[in-house]
Amino acid sequence: MEKKTPLISLDSILHATLLLLALVFIQEVQGIGVNYGTIADNLPPPAEVAKFLSKSTIINRVRLFDANPELLRAFKDTRIEVTITVPNNQIPRVTNLTVAREWVQTNVQPFIPSTKLVRILVGNEVLSTANKLLISNLVPAMQTLHVALVELSIDSHIKVTTPHSLGILVNSTTPSGARFRQGYDTHVIKPMLSFLRDSNSPFMVNPYPFFGFSVDTLDYALFLPNSGMVDDVTQLRYTNMLDAQLDSVYSAMKVLGFEDVEIVIGETGWPTKGDPAQIGVDPMSASEYNGNLIRHVTSGVGTPLMPNRTFETYIFALFDENLKPGPTCERNFGLFWPNMTPVYDIQIMRNTAIGVAHYRHKSRLIIMVILSFIGSWRGLIFL
């Protein structure tokens, strides 16, 4: 009987398996973003920060609150995805196409592709400013900047959006009942969502359970075991406040017909220090929130209304910012000290034992699945 040559060699399958595992491992290890604020006088040089993040942490996304050229040069060749920001006071100017082109020529073109710029944010929480000039110019500025990117054929790599506080929502007792504020909903947010859908850009929100919890809901805010909350309309149970906040945004978007637009978490975090009267403001609570946050948003579980999803998430913040005004907590959201040692452990260092064990466990599961697949097809490939 003639021996047939296998259509696919086992060596080829094993090589492909190892390559797949390597790719999966890289993707798993890198998957969280951070806000890099600089309102401080004790921060390390940007080049050292960029090197530290790329070599020593699982952080692979950074959001900047401006377009500081020193910071943009620092992330050159690091493969870290960088988001830059048009400051609020520049929004009216960039509605002019000539100005938008100049802004892109100055703040984008000199740094790409060596710096991996992926997003331009037009302002920060503009709708919360109640500044009519900024609000009326927000969407036009987004559209004009997008046109400037299209003209350079870089719009597929660099997207335009803007982050919002949850103040854009009307207070609701249930996530399913949430709506955008009247006036903003049809005049600003609806055309904005239309632009985001057409340009394949995300809707960015800044949910902060820290600013919404009470003594009775601290565990609910920290992703710790609690009795949860049931939405009376959908009968869905919520076991953490972040899910309820995200589903509130989703519900408001759905009412306008834009539930298919991706939601990105532009800011969220928990401070380590606050004023004397504040409860739940300490390193332990910050560790609980941010550690559980990372596990939750990368798990693929999603939320009750958005199941089986992961969420691109940017933790606030990389460092404490000792020159920020306001209450004590505003200056104490940092994940790292200025010497770049962790303020607390949430397994974002590449050499974290728990983190490595987690990824090894996932790799073993993938190996088992692939070997099972090979076993099932072994007889077929030699026919």
What tags apply to this protein structure?
383 residues; alpha/beta; TIM Barrel; 9-stranded parallel β-sheet; two-stranded antiparallel ribbon; 13 strands; disordered N terminus
In brief, what are we looking at here?
The chain is α/β, with parallel strands linked by helices and 383 residues long. The chain has helices at residues 10-29, 46-56, 69-74, 97-107, 132-151, 184-198, 218-221, 241-255, 283-297, 353-381, and strands at residues 32-36, 59-64, 81-86, 116-122, 159-161, 163-165, 169-170, 179-180, 203-206, 229-230, 237-238, 263-268, 313-315.
Protein described:
It is found in: Cell membrane. GO terms for molecular function: glucan endo-1,3-beta-D-glucosidase activity. Residues 1-31 form the signal peptide. It is a lipid-anchor; GPI-anchor. With 383 residues, this protein is α/β, with parallel strands linked by helices. The protein has one domain: Glycosidases (TIM Barrel). It contains ten helices and 13 strands. The chain has helices at 10-29, 46-56, 69-74, 97-107, 132-151, 184-198, 218-221, 241-255, 283-297, 353-381, and strands at residues 32-36, 59-64, 81-86, 116-122, 159-161, 163-165, 169-170, 179-180, 203-206, 229-230, 237-238, 263-268, 313-315. The chain has a nine-stranded parallel sheet, covered by helices on one side. The protein has a two-stranded antiparallel sheet with strand order 7-8. Helix 5 (132-151) links the parallel strand 4 and strand 5 (159-161). The two termini are 12 Å apart. The model is unreliable at 1-8, 21-30, 353-361 and 377-383 (pLDDT under 50).
